[in-house]
Specification:
The protein is 27% helix and 28% strand. The chain has 293 residues and is of the alpha+beta class. The chain folds into 2 domains: 120 residues, 2-Layer Sandwich (D-amino Acid Aminotransferase, Chain A, domain 1), CATH 3.30.470.10; 161 residues, D-amino Acid Aminotransferase, Chain A, domain 2. The strands form 2 sheets. Strands 8, 9, 10, 11, 12, 13, 14, 15 and 16 form a 9-stranded mixed β-sheet that branches. Strands 1, 2, 3, 4, 5, 6 and 7 form a 7-stranded antiparallel β-sheet that branches. β11 and β12 form a beta hairpin. α2 packs across α3. The model has no long low-confidence stretch (mean pLDDT 96).
């Protein structure tokens, strides 16, 4: 894989199209030292960006919670995102818009720092090994927990929130798993390191944790809408780890993960059943509908 700093093309950077390898930030940027950095992740299918407006809305929400004022309007960011996807000619890939505080100040306080914006995009396939979309991935259970909602800006996509995700993912991979299940501060099931989680019970109903200390993902909400359109009952509730053995199916949802079945969490095994495969197929059809039209 080509390292990301060695790739070719352009990146939208503070309203200019800059050569990919020339995009720089200073080593004393506040965003690097203090985590004042927010971002989004979008998918491109057949040259079309899926749910662009929703992702831009969340980017601005994250920035506001982090006390960062993005120096462009939402419409300008939408236009810029479409522009860089077109310039890079990305047909089936990923888009990463992000904002961070610059290097004008070096202290916890950052009142006078400039807010920088960049948008990069590249061709990108499936997040997990494609064969695992039918076989299911395996998760361990992380020792790290999602913090209480009064201790972090939990409903943002801010870089600092992903420290424990990286640590959890590294441990999982060393142990032969694809990802890690994270519990919340109360010990209930929360999410994976970068995706929301759903369970199927013996009656064909879905259960998913209430997103009260982690992101209510855009893909999560989309899949809930798809499930309800198929008359599948979706229960959003607290889920104890003691319930893991009661479920017969399990899957992740996320912009990167899309709909990915899970075959195992620790010692608990799950079937990649027809309901999950149907939801995955329906999601795939939805995100590619503009191309088909």
């Amino acid at each position: 894989m080509i390292p990301y700093n060695k790739r070719e093309g352009k990146i939208w950077y503070n309203n200019d199209l800059v050569d990919w390898q020339d995009v720089k930030l200073h080593v004393l940027s506040h965003g690097l030292h203090y985590g004042s950095f927010v971002f989004e992740g979008l998918r491109v299918y057949g040259g079309e960006i899926f749910k662009l407006e929703e992702h831009t809305e969340r980017l601005f929400h994250s920035a506001k919670i982090m006390d960062m004022k993005i120096p462009y309007s939402k419409e300008e960011i939408n236009i810029a995102t479409k522009k860089i996807v077109s310039v890079q000619n990305v047909q089936n890939g990923y888009v990463r818009p992000f904002a961070w505080r610059g290097s004008e100040m070096m202290a916890v306080s950052a009142q006078q720092t400039k807010i920088h914006i960049a948008i990069a995009t590249w061709e990108w396939g499936t997040y997990f090994d494609p064969k695992l979309k039918t076989e299911g991935i395996k998760l361990n259970i992380s020792k790290w927990r999602r913090p209480a909602p009064d201790t972090i800006p939990w409903d943002t996509k801010a870089s600092g929130l992903y420290m424990i995700c990286t640590l959890s993912k590294h441990t999982a991979e060393r142990e032969g798993y694809s990802d890690s299940l994270m519990l919340d501060h109360e010990g209930n099931v929360a999410e994976a390191t970068g995706a929301n989680i759903f369970f199927k019970d013996k009656n064909g109903e879905l259960h998913t944790p209430t997103p009260d200390c982690f992101l209510d993902g855009i893909t999560r909400r989309t899949v809930i809408e798809i499930a309800k359109s198929k008359n599948i009952k979706v229960n959003e509730r607290k889920i104890s780890p003691d319930e893991l053995s009661n479920f017969v199916g399990c899957f992740l949802t996320g912009t990167a993960a899309e709909v990915t079945p899970i075959s195992k969490i620790a010692e608990h095994n799950y079937k990649v059943c027809s309901l999950i495969l149907d939801l995955s197929a329906s999601y795939d059809k939805l995100v590619r509908k503009k191309k088909a039209a």
